[in-house]
């Protein structure tokens, strides 16, 4: 009797399993392997006039810099957010704490970097070249932005230290804080 009950139960189980399947039902996709690491953020493609960047541009714990530009440099200020911050936005009257690397559009050579000094720099936005101030305006704390500054918004035709006259400047800037 036990044997016939087991056989009957097995037949019912097979029938239930078979009834649940359907030849027209799509197969479930295989489960993705579990991962504890979040997907890596990727930097946006460079905007027109913005040179390619080195390293991992979305990693705000490391410096990134612009490579040499290609073609004619832009004649107007170009900005591109690489990482959009979530803090307050900078205004023209602010003094800001920034990490940055400045390079020449012509050859990608570094002319200044707060990263190489090991700490953020503090600037009143009304005390820097116009293109830097205009490029930071509206940027939110916690963000990274590329600024491509034409000569007329930078140092013009005059040289300034390692910056030759008539240079287009490229800054990769992290807005660390705003001082009130």
TrEMBL record:
What family classification does the UniProt entry report for this protein?
Answer: Belongs to the FKBP-type PPIase family.
Q: What is the lineage of its organism?
A: Bacteria, Bacillati, Actinomycetota, Actinomycetes, Pseudonocardiales
Reactions this protein catalyses: [protein]-peptidylproline (omega=180) = [protein]-peptidylproline (omega=0)
Q: Where is the signal peptide?
A: 1-27
The protein's matches in Gene3D superfamilies, at most eight in alphabetical order, are given as: 3.10.50.40
Per UniProt, the ranges with Polar residues bias are 55-77
Instruction: Please provide the record's keywords in A-Z order.
Output: Isomerase, Rotamase, Signal
Region Disordered: start-end pairs:
24-77
Low complexity bias spans = 33-44
Give GO MF terms, alphabetically.
peptidyl-prolyl cis-trans isomerase activity
Look up the EC number in the record and give it. Answer: 5.2.1.8
Q: What class of enzyme is it?
A: isomerase
Task: Give the originating organism.
Answer: Pseudonocardia yunnanensis
Spans traversing the lipid bilayer:
none
**This protein's name:** Peptidyl-prolyl cis-trans isomerase
State whether keyword Signal applies: yes
Task: Please report the stretch or stretches of sequence annotated as the PPIase FKBP-type domain.
Answer: 93-179
Q: Name one Pfam family in it.
A: FKBP_C
């Amino acid at each position: 009797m036990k044997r016939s009950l087991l056989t009957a139960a097995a037949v019912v189980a097979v029938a239930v399993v078979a009834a649940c399947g359907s030849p027209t039902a799509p197969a479930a996709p295989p489960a993705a392997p579990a991962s504890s690491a979040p997907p890596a953020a990727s930097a946006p493609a460079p905007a027109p006039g913005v040179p390619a960047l080195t390293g991992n541009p979305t990693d705000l714990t490391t410096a990134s810099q612009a490579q040499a530009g290609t073609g004619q440099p832009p004649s107007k200020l170009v900005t591109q957010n690489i990482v959009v911050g979530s803090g307050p936005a900078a205004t023209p009257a602010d003094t800001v704490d920034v990490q940055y690397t400045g390079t020449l559009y012509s050859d990608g050579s570094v002319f200044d970097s707060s990263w190489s000094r090991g700490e953020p720099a503090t600037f009143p936005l009304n005390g820097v070249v116009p293109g830097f101030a205009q490029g930071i305006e509206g940027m939110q704390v916690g963000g990274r932005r590329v600024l491509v500054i034409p000569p007329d918004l930078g140092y013009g035709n005059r040289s300034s230290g390692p910056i030759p006259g008539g240079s287009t400047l490229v800054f990769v800037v992290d807005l660390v804080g705003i001082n009130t």
